[in-house]
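Hi R.,

Here are the chain sequences for the assembly we discussed:
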Amino acid sequence: MAVLTIGVFSSLIGSMNYDFALRLSDAAADKGHKVNLWFSGNAAGSPIKGQKHLKDYSHGEKPLKALLEKGIEICTCEACSVARGVNKTNAIEGVQWNAMHWYLAKIYSSDRVLHIGGE
Amino acid sequence: MKLAVFVSDYKITVDTLDRLSAEKMGIIFVGNGVYHASIKENGKPSFLFDKSAHFYALKEDLETRGVDPSGIDSRVKAVTYGDVVDLIMNDYEKLAWL
Amino acid sequence: MADIKLAFIVQRLPYKSENPKLAATHAMAYQTVEILLEDGQTITPALCYIGEGVLNCVKDQKAMDIYGITSTEMHFKSCLLVDMDVYVCKDDLEKFGISEDRIADAEDMGADKKVQIVPFEAIQKVMNTANHLLFF
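And here is the predicted structure of the full complex:
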């Protein structure tokens, strides 16, 4: 088993990069790898609960919960999230809140790092 | 270094890739990057094929865009998400997303 | 215990994208990451500006005066202030017609570290020696 850390900086809706990151995380977890997901920049607006799944838009809540159930660690940049109106009271439960050093610490012990910059 | 580069766009930021060098390079087309594997603009294949690299395209993103994976450039191998996981864990040590 | 080297590579223009600032802030987090690591474990970042990314490094940016937001220049200078290696691609400065004297430094903030304006080959070497690459 290896450790994969993915940094996601793209928005939930609009680029599909976010969707890619979630699908890749899922595939890696299915193969027995440990996966860490870090949200920063526009991705930090995504861990908000109560998202309505309209079929014209990418959807984050349901797949994030599924990844959490698989044991994937998901953490959002607190500053980036609160700047976008997402806070601990309206966030998806199980998503961690921390600062950028969380991402660097996970990278430290990772075999592979995929950093997906924003738009 | 053994570098896997994810190309997620058709025309943006590929100038960076043009300059990158590695002992072993894999170029993985994802998102709109898969058009590099499937379009011949003015009859010419993507200039990315001038790079000395192994080429892959994400099957799911080809099919999302109405492209039949069996009809893409013969230099490109269509791969699934699971295949991408194996590639980055087994064949490459560093990853770049462009 | 080991040191992990990270190359933060900025290739995007300032302001249109949040990426260049986030590159600097994430790189600067190397100073606080020790609270989550064991003794002797360290991270050493290098911040590299290439392509259009070199336009982040031009001095006298007035984003705070005009839009009320921290300038990309301030993030750039802060990285020098915390003794980070900061590289700017000389080839790309020449390509865009930007003279080296237009590149910011952090001497006014008391930084000892100087920005390193180097050919792309030198930045490629930084990438070769890094454990992981982070493109912004």
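Chain B touches chain A through 17 residues (CB under 8 Å). The mean pLDDT of chain B is 95.

Let me know if anything looks off.

Best,
T.
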